Amino acid sequence: MPAITYRSYQPSVRGDLIEAHNNCWDRLSEPGCWLDGSRRVVVAAEIRNARTCSFCSEQKNAVSPNAISGSHSSLGVLDDNEVEVIHRIVSDPGRLSKKWYEEKLTGGLSEEEYIEILAIIAMVMVVDTFTFALGIEDHALPNPKSGKPSYYRSPGAKTNAAWIPIVEPEDVCEGDGELYPNPKVGYIVRALSALPDMKQHYWDLMDSHYLPGPLIYQYDQDHRAINRTQMEVIAGRVSALHQCLY
Prior knowledge:
Layout: H1 15-29, H2 37-49, H3 54-61, H4 80-91, H5 98-106, H6 111-134, H7 187-190, H8 196-209, H9 228-241
């Protein structure tokens, strides 16, 4: 029996969404590219903890987050640098800077660890926002599985168009798999590409919530219960509320 069913919720939740959420939780528990299963689940717990961090609230409400002194309320498992990355991305992503990012690397995080943590934040917040919208409790986090990370970073990843290294379509390597199945590749799709598995896992989840890549440019066809115009209006409004610069 899958861990996530939404059985008690009416109207019923689409089967592909249930499958995507279960796959996400299963992958969260496994070793990733640079983090093992235990650390990935701890990151997920800290993501949720950031919601109630009073220091995050003070920073969010300040003219500048740097104007506030203090420390984040953490679970006490990750180091301060990791906690800062998680809490700031969760609570105030619109005011992050390249300097801030570089300071996190100087503080001990590798580029690969940062990208994997970023991917976990994105995925956990998708699932948790979904349950919040339904008015139900967060799903219990999975038990971590043993094993070692793959330590695979695409040889084609370069730091050029973004703060973090990304893989341009012309730099995709054989070991990356089918990194870009759609010939039209926006930069939002390239964001996690330095770690191809993380990029794939994120978009496996997002395709269920929005549209699979090949369908993005089929503007005259309706693939969901609401039409494409309605989808884009909602997406635009949500992006504005979340201060999404993209």
